[in-house]
Automatic annotation (TrEMBL):
<dbReference type="Pfam" id="PF02525">
    <property type="entry name" value="Flavodoxin_2"/>
</dbReference>
<keyword id="KW-0560">Oxidoreductase</keyword>
<feature type="domain" description="Flavodoxin-like fold">
    <location>
        <begin position="1"/>
        <end position="214"/>
    </location>
</feature>
<dbReference type="GO" id="GO:0003955">
    <property type="term" value="F:NAD(P)H dehydrogenase (quinone) activity"/>
</dbReference>
<dbReference type="InterPro" id="IPR029039">
    <property type="entry name" value="Flavoprotein-like_sf"/>
</dbReference>
<protein>
    <submittedName>
        <fullName>NAD(P)H dehydrogenase (Quinone)</fullName>
        <ecNumber>1.6.5.2</ecNumber>
    </submittedName>
</protein>
<dbReference type="InterPro" id="IPR051545">
    <property type="entry name" value="NAD(P)H_dehydrogenase_qn"/>
</dbReference>
<dbReference type="InterPro" id="IPR003680">
    <property type="entry name" value="Flavodoxin_fold"/>
</dbReference>
<comment type="similarity">
    <text>Belongs to the NAD(P)H dehydrogenase (quinone) family.</text>
</comment>
<dbReference type="GO" id="GO:0005829">
    <property type="term" value="C:cytosol"/>
</dbReference>
Length: 264
């Protein structure tokens, strides 16, 4: 494998730092190639600006088309080009972060905002079906795999379907479905370390062992069964067809692993 490991944590001596070291070491021992983008160590700028694209400040800044034009013209800022090159070269993306305020830290959100640009990660039209965009399983990064690694303060049950924090599956939906699957990645079940602020030595050893096993198993792991946009499950308005998950709503209906009698 060629792995890009993107880390978003400000302290290398943290639990996240130790987990990253364990995972990267396991991959390298097994002969895999790993490139690490440690966003804090890189002093990554998370803010989208017109300067990223060499855009005339006197003209209206429309981020999508301007960024696509800049990429085509070769005028993207050097830091964005470098990260896009890493993404393009890797067949596997590991995204690691602590869950802060129910989402990614700002520096990581800004990495996606600045790197996953139109024409590179999205906005590509299906050549066989003009007017239909390749996304949700068919994006420009299709054929690659992605694994989310996150640490959370909750202990587990409180992040379940009836937990006070909300179901972790739904908290990760914007990243796993709305970002990674959107651009074409096969998204693997996440690695989640709970009770992050009070992990004992034994608990860390268990978490590190699970992480090593999971990263080495990436090529053989069954992806999350998200429904493809253009696979026939959605109508022309991109609404799930009535006979699928009848009577249900919510984020869970966009996965195929909970079939009803109608779907079997």
């Amino acid at each position: 494998m060629k792995v890009l490991w993107v880390l978003a944590h400000p302290e290398p001596r943290s639990l996240n730092g130790a987990l990253k070291d364990a995972g990267v070491a396991a991959l390298e021992r097994a002969g895999h190639e790993v490139v690490v983008s440690d966003l804090h160590a890189m002093a990554w700028n998370p803010v989208v600006t017109a300067a990223d694209y060499g855009h005339d400040p006197d003209e209206r800044f429309r981020v999508g088309p301007v960024s696509a034009q800049a990429r085509a013209a070769g005028t993207l800022s050097a830091d964005v080009r470098a990260e896009q090159d890493k993404v393009a070269a890797a067949d596997t993306l590991v995204v690691q972060f602590p869950l802060w305020w129910y989402g990614m830290p700002a520096i990581l959100k800004g990495w996606f905002d600045r790197v996953f640009l139109k024409g590179f990660a999205y906005g590509v039209v299906d050549p066989d079906h003009p007017g239909r965009t390749l996304r949700y399983g068919e994006g420009p990064l299709a054929g690659k795999r992605a694994l989310v690694l996150t640490t959370v303060g909750g202990r587990g049950p409180d992040l379940g379907p009836r937990g006070v924090h909300g179901h972790l599956e739904e908290l990760l939906f914007p990243l796993q479905h709305g970002t990674l699957f959107y651009v074409g990645y096969e998204v693997l079940p996440p690695v989640v370390v709970t009770g992050a602020n009070r992990v004992s030595d034994d608990e860390f050893a268990t978490a590190a062992r699970e992480l090593r096993e999971r990263v080495l198993a990436v090529p053989h792991t069954t992806p999350l069964p998200f429904r493809r946009q253009n696979g026939g499950d959605y109508d022309d308005d991109l609404v799930l067809r009535d006979h699928l998950a009848p009577g249900r709503a919510g984020l869970g209906i966009h996965r195929r692993d909970r079939p009803t009698e109608t779907e079997r």
